[in-house]
Amino acid sequence: MILVTGGAGFIGSNFVLDWLAHSDEPVVNLDALTYAGNRRNLASLNGDARHIFVRGDIGDRALIDRLLAEYRPRALVHFAAESHVDRSIHGPGAFIKTNVEGTYTLLEAARAHWSTLGEADKAAFRFHHVSTDEVYGSLAPGAPAFTEDHVYEPNSPYSASKAASDHLVRAWHNTYGLPVVTTNCSNNYGPFHFPEKLIPLMIVNALAGKPLPVYGDGQQIRDWLYVTDHCSAIRAVLAKGRLGETYNIGGWNEKPNIEIVQTICALLDELRPAAEGSYTRFITYVKDRPGHDRRYAIDARKIERELGWRPAETFETGIRKTVQWYLEHADWVAEVQSGSYRDWVDANYAKR
Ligand code: NAD
Ligand code: DAU
Fold first, then answer.
1. Domains of the chain and any CATH numbers
2. C-alpha of residue 55 to centroid of ligand 2, in Å
3. Strand pairing report for 225-226 and 221-223
4. What's the whole-number average pLDDT of the chain?
5. What is the rounded CA–CA span in Å between residue 148 and residue 182?
6. In the 3-class helix/strand/coil scheme, how is 97-123 assigned residue by residue?
7. What's the CA-to-centroid distance between 130 and ligand 1, angstroms?
8. pTM, full prediction
C-alpha cells in the first residue's frame, strides 16, 4: 500500500480518487483536516476498504512511526502543506511549521522506517515529495521556461517554505540515501479546488454576483494544468522516475490572469446566462499582492522524454469541465464557504 499525506485537500483528494480508479493498491490517507481539508471530497470512497483515512498531523512523529510500522507502505506521497500564497503573507508561521518542520518530521520517520527494511524493500521504497514551480521565482517576459536546473529564487513565505522542504528532501537523499523523487508542478485547477484560489474564487464570486478581484494589472502569467494530469504525472514519476531526481510538471498553458477571468465569464455566460448581462461586469481591479511573481512557465520536456508523460487536457477542455463541475456542486461550494472562509475573505479583500 501507499501512504498519502494531505489526501483530503484539493490535489491530494483528486490523487487518491485517481489512484484507486487505476489500481487496487490501498491508500492510507493522513490529513490534519485544516480549513483546506475536506472529507466530503472523498465521499465516493465511503465503505471502500482500499481507503484508510487517518486524521493527524505530519508533525506528529509518534503517529507517523505508528502508521509506518502498522501499514508498512512501499511509498509515501507527500502533498500535505499550507498552500495559499496570500495566507502565507498574512501568517507565515503555519507555513514554516507544516511545510518545513512537518516535512522534516516525515523525512526522519521515513528514514527510520526505511533503514529497518530488507534489501529488496529498501530498494523499492519511495518518498515522493510534491512541490511547486514557485520555488524558482519569477520569469521575465520571453525568458525560457523553468527547467529542473533553474536557480531557486522563492519570493513569498509560501514558496520559501516549499523551497526549504525541497532542500531537505534533496539532503536526505544525498546524505542518508533515502530513495526520494521530487516533482515541481505549475498551477493546478479542477474539481475540489478551494475557492480561495483564482479559478474557483472567480467562478463562485461570479455566480454569487460578487466582485471578481483581479490583483494589480491582471497581466501576471501562470501555466495551468488540469489536476488529473498532475495525478497521472505523479503516478508516472512514482513508477518510473529516477531516484534523487526532480521532474517539472506543467501544462504548456501560459495565460495572463485577466484572460483566465474573461474565459470563466464567457463560459458562465454560455452555461448559466444572466438576464443582467455578461459576468464580465463584475471584474474589479484591486491592490496587488506584495512580492507578486510576474510569470511562471514550466519546461516539461524532461518528464516527457524520460517517462513519456504529457498532459491529456488542453486549457479549453479542462476549464470547461471545471466550470461545469462548480455549477453541478453548489452544495459543496456552500459547505466550504461556511465559517472561517468568510473571515479569510474579509481579511484578504476588505482593505484592497
Ligand atoms: P490544499 O491546501 O488544497 O490541501 C492541503 C491539504 O493538506 C489539506 O487537506 C490539509 O488539511 C492538509 N494539511 C495541511 N497541514 C497539514 C498537516 N500539518 N498535517 C497533515 N495534513 C495537513 O493544497 P493543494 O493545492 O492540494 O496542494 C497540495 C500540494 O501540492 C502542496 O504540497 C502544494 O505545495 C503542492 N502544489 C500545489 C499546486 C496547486 O496549484 N494547488 C501546484 C503545485 C504544487
Ligand atoms: O504555481 C503553483 C502554485 O500555484 C502552487 O504552489 C500554490 O499552492 C497555488 O496556490 C498556486 O499559487 P498562485 O499564487 O499562483 O495561485 P492563486 O490561485 O492564489 O493565484 C493565481 C494568480 O491569480 C496569481 O497571479 C494571483 C492572482 N489572483 C489570485 C487571487 C486569489 C488574483 O488576481 N485575484 C485573486 O483574488
1. 2-189+224-252+292-312 (3.40.50.720)
2. 27
3. unpaired
4. 97
5. 10
6. HHHHHHHHHHHHHHHHHHCCCCHHHHH
7. 9
8. 0.98
